[in-house]
Design brief:
With 179 residues, the chain is α+β, with helices and mostly antiparallel strands. It is built from three helices and four strands.
């Protein structure tokens, strides 16, 4: 239901309540003493109340029909994914040594459920290559704790370039601005 519709319904409900109160007061007065003016006012207020109640039910039905007809699609956030480095670049695979035993309980029953691969771009003058740092994950069968070496240091957090690449880029930009 739209927010404006709820506000309109609350004001309509307040008006209906006020009219019912006035009708009850007039009924008490009406049956106490006879008066033509009160009888006419009483009839007018009852007709006005009937019209408002009919309008309120029509509005509620229209709001229910609109709510059924309107379908709200849930928002799905796109995961910010970076494109992988081109396949033609040479890759060097460095495997970080994993622990021999569980750090939690000391058990040597470790299982390898997977690994995380971090790709970093390294530049050697006139040559580019991708360094793949592999951090193997191990799970302890005794206490079910997952252990993994820490992620490698990056000059810029979550960046893909290593120190030599940044040094090369900075030296190139400084050389181009000093001309």
């Amino acid at each position: 239901m739209p927010p404006g519709c709820a506000l309109q319904n609350s004001s309509t409900d307040a008006l209906i309540g006020r009219l019912k109160l006035e009708i009850e007061k007039l009924r008490r007065e009406f049956y106490g003493t006879r008066s033509e003016r009160k009888a006419r006012l009483f009839d007018q207020l009852e007709m006005q109340l009937e019209d408002l109640e009919a309008d309120a039910t029509e509005d509620e039905l229209a709001a229910e029909i609109a709510a059924r007809a309107t379908s709200v699609v849930a928002f799905q956030r796109k995961r910010p994914g970076r494109q992988p480095f081109p396949d033609h670049l040479p890759r060097e695979r460095i495997v970080v040594a994993a622990p021999e035993s569980c750090a939690c309980c000391g058990s040597s029953k470790l299982v390898k459920p997977g690994e995380d691969v971090t790709e970093t771009l390294e530049v050697i003058p006139r040559q580019w290559k991708v360094i793949q740092t592999v951090r193997e994950r191990f799970s302890c069968r005794a206490c079910e704790t997952i252990t993994q070496p820490p992620a490698p240091f990056h000059v810029i957090p979550r960046g893909h370039a290593d120190r030599t690449c940044w040094r090369w880029c900075c030296s190139r930009s400084m050389a181009s601005t000093s001309r």
